Amino acid sequence: MASMGQIIFCSMVILIVMFSAIIILVLALTFSNQAAQAVTQNAFPVANLGQDQLLSCQLVNTVETTFTKVSVTWEKTGMQGFVYQYVNGGSSLGNQNQEFSGRTDIFPDELVKGNVSLLLRSARAEDEGVYTCSADSSKGGGKVNIHLRTAAYTAPTFTLSERTMTARADRWFPRPNVTWTDSNRRVLQATTSMEESSAGIFRVVSSLPEVNSSQSYTLQIKNPLVMSTSSAEITGLNVSANTYFSFSRAPPALVSFYPSVVAAVACISFLILLILK
After folding, report:
1. Would you say the CATH fold of 154-247 matches that of 37-151?
2. How far is 117 from 70, CA to CA, in rounded Å?
3. Three-point CA angle 20, 24, 28, nearest 5°
4. What are the Cα distances from residue 160, in Å, to 166, 194, 213, 233, 235?
5. Under 8 Å CB-to-CB from 116, ≥6 apart: which residues?
6. What is the CATH number of domain 37-151?
7. pTM for the whole thing?
8. Which CATH class name applies to 154-247?
9. Side-chain half-sphere of 263: how many Cα atoms within 13 Å?
10. How many angstroms separate the CA atoms of 109 and 107, rounded?
11. pLDDT tens digits, the chain, 277 residues: what are they?
């Protein structure tokens, strides 16, 4: 069994290696040739089925703020043809996959700013996948991957009748869980039903009995991709509510992958230190 001193020493070595890598990265970026790179503001967006979705892709450069001779090709992993292509000052759609015909576009007026984002119209479940933005310009370019996920979600509406508050949300997918809490964050008992359409979309109806006037309640509708949080306040016979949405940052597989890598690196480093000793 390793002693406490060995464990502390191993931890210090790992920290030194990590900080050294960060310093090297910062220096490399500082003294690079300032070539443009492709980045995204959201690598794991969640598209609302039937709604338009923006796939973010931006050329960035530490010196230049304007770009010329911009071209971009959007592709989807595992799919023949491309999603969208812009070259030589115009769209080039001869090899575009038919699934995206008439459903994709960029923002030509934004190209000079390095904005090569893709607008995907009327998102479908089959649109889910990994998209690659390959952008180039007179100042250089690069590639970035966007992992698009699809779901259906709507904000609930609230009604009040005989001290029972009912929330209705017409479109949710995947199937969500519903939780009511009071102002003290205590979980409340409610009656919830979900009706599934032929398209697999769920209509949520949830009723909370014995509510009190001048009280506030929180309704959370959540599935693995999206969570809506509604704050509902009763005033007399009326209900006023505010709803906001939050989204999972990354697929569960990736979330669990990174800690595993860190743990594996730490274990390997520790074993190497023991062998060398």
Report:
1. yes
2. 12
3. 175
4. 6, 19, 10, 11, 10
5. 38, 57, 58, 59, 70, 72, 86, 106, 110, 133, 135
6. 2.60.40.10
7. 0.76
8. mainly beta
9. 5
10. 6
11. 556 665 665 566 566 767 666 765 554 554 444 678 999 999 999 999 999 999 999 999 877 678 999 999 999 999 999 999 999 999 999 999 999 999 999 999 999 999 999 999 999 999 999 999 999 999 899 999 999 999 999 999 999 999 999 999 999 999 999 999 999 999 999 999 999 999 999 999 999 999 998 789 999 999 999 999 999 999 888 899 999 999 998 755 554 444 444 444 444 444 444 444 5
C-beta of residue 49 within 8 angstroms of C-beta of residue 123? yes
Cross-strand partners of 46: 149
